[in-house]
Amino acid sequence: MRQRTTTSTLALASATILGAALLTSCADDGATSVGADGKTTVSVGVSGNVFDLSIRLADKNGYFDKQNIKIKYVTLTASTGTSALQSGSVQFLNSSPTSFLAGLSKGLPEISVATNGGGNPLGVVVSDEFAKKHNLTADTPADQVAKALADSTAGASSANTKAEAGIFLRAHGVDPDKLKWVSLPSPAADKASLAKGEVDWFITSQPIPLQVQHEGDGVVVADSSKVPEWAYEQAGYGQVVVVKESYAKSNGDTVKGFATAVQQATAYLGTHPSTDEKVLAAARSTLRSVPDDVLSSSVSQVDWPRTAKQDADGWKKTLAFVKDGIKAVPDASVSSDDWTNTYLP
Fold this sequence. Notes:
By secondary structure, the protein is an alpha/beta fold. Helix content is 47%, strand content 17%. The strands form two sheets. Strands 1, 2, 3, 4, 5 and 11 form a six-stranded mixed β-sheet that branches. Strands 8-7-9-6-10 form a five-stranded mixed β-sheet, with helices on both faces. Helix 2 crosses helix 13.
């Protein structure tokens, strides 16, 4: 009897372990579900910034629906996006090249299947007091702005944006290391610190700088239109759609449908003004409680590609910006095995 009990226990334990392994395998690939309507629901990691617009527009314009795909949004940060993709919490990740290259440097099995936005839509916003003291306006030339910032207290909530400020300052002969820097926990803290007079200026992604200016609490004195080093043409930087290699291999039709819908959306954004009602409607769902004029200005600072296709020259430029420009991933590397246009129409 004891042997039968032991055998049964072992069999049950083996079945449990096997079941757990199968579940883990499914989770690792990022399970998707197909509903009674025949549509596949996928989870997409987004960041709540202007680069999410192509995915939101693809959803609102019905491009995903035409591909029999339903979208579930999961808001993530730069520090949680890659882990969510690897765990299967999301199947698609709208990722910065920095996060993607960091994942590759760790040997993670990821692949970029589309590009859906270019450039660095950043803003340097100074306090009204600092602007008045140095005679700065939104139209002040970049060289004059940089020289005014040389003797100031600056705020940044990420190492990347601080490094990007450094690129701007060095381009005009200002050593960023001689400034007093205040490290802040979030873009929202940037705004609060400026209002309290703790910093003279801060740098972060749009729309926060433009919104601060809209509310009369500061002046945006530098953005990608004034700083060519941040623009797509020079930086080759932007946003990419990333999936796990195993998921792409097992769910090729879904990946193709997703990439196709995103390309349709970026093409729409690239051929319609930022004041277009469909563009604004998608932007409102991406950046809630932001005034339409701020949304429109933020959208116009992104280079929206007519095609989501990637190429070796673009990745070479992006790698140089990430590795040498902002020094975010010192051991970064990328090859043709790490990105593909296979899933694009």
